[in-house]
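Propose amino acids for all 297 sites.
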């Protein structure tokens, strides 16, 4: 019998606070301590948790799996103990989520298990865990609260460009020299592909799933939503072409606020390295902050 492997799957690692609404119990933890939190979770372990900010994303990603092809594996990473984490698994069962693998660390950082599971994406409410995963070279984001839900069957994911899909090389020029220096540099380097950022592998894994479907029947739709405008657009387009990675929609906004455009796209989730952009986006769609690159130094 072959040994189980996750090598051929898109692996998403998610914290319990990203998957479910644990705000009430987390408040008890912060105000009353570990013992009170443990008692509360055990006393309420049969009460089903409400969906959290990344619940819809996870549900739609698991829906990509077919009887003949399992594309996605979702792993639960939790700072609960296995004892207090029973409530989380009870809720997973209640909602019919196909999640069977988990790591409970009893207060210790969960990020060390992101590489062990070979994760393509890690979502958490703990910024420290997220930063450690990013430092190890894995796509990760701190989830922001949002009430938005896209009820369509199609999975729609939107990305910022610099410091997310791409490296922060160009952003560093902008920060040090301003918009004119940025435009000159990107125009001169238009035919030089940008280095990859922390979300390149995740985007490539989505593209791999899309490739199994006719283009007009794909269950996934992706978008690049960037503050770049012309002439800085060309290098982005040529970079994605060089990577042979498909992006379905590209919005070059020239500094406009991204929120309304993300709502129009109908994103299930949006990733950006700048908190102000994420805060704006979270008014319209579920969003995660990627604390990576010069904007977060």
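Proposal:
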């Amino acid at each position: 019998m072959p040994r189980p492997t996750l090598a051929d799957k898109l692996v998403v690692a998610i914290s319990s606070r990203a998957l479910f609404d644990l705000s009430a119990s987390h408040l008890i933890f912060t105000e009353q301590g570990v013992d009170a939190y443990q008692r509360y979770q055990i006393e309420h372990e049969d009460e089903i948790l409400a969906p959290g900010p990344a619940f819809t994303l996870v549900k739609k990603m698991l829906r990509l799996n077919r009887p003949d092809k399992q594309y996605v594996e979702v792993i639960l990473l939790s700072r609960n103990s296995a004892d207090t984490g029973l409530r989380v698994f009870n809720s997973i069962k209640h909602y019919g989520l196909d999640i069977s693998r988990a790591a409970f660390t009893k207060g210790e950082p969960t990020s060390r298990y992101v590489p062990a599971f070979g994760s393509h994406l890690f979502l958490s409410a703990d910024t420290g865990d997220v930063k450690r995963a990013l430092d190890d070279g894995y796509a990760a984001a701190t989830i922001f609260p949002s009430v938005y839900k896209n009820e369509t069957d199609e999975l729609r994911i939107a990305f910022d460009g610099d410091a997310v899909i791409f490296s922060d090389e160009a952003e560093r020029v902008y920060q040090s020299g301003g918009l004119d220096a940025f435009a000159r540099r990107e125009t001169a380097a238009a035919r030089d592909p940008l280095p990859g950022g922390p979300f390149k592998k995740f985007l490539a894994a989505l593209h791999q799933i899309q490739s199994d479907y006719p283009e007009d029947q794909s269950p996934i739709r992706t978008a690049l939503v960037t503050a770049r405008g012309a002439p800085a657009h060309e290098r982005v387009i040529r970079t994605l072409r060089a990577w042979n990675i498909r992006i379905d929609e590209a919005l070059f906004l020239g500094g406009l606020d991204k929120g309304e455009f993300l709502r129009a796209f109908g994103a299930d989730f949006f990733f950006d390295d700048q908190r102000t952009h994420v805060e704006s986006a979270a008014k319209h769609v579920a969003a995660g902050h990627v604390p990576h690159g010069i904007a977060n130094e």
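The two ends are 49 Å apart (CA to CA). Residues 10-144 form a domain with the Rossmann fold fold (CATH 3.40.50.1000).
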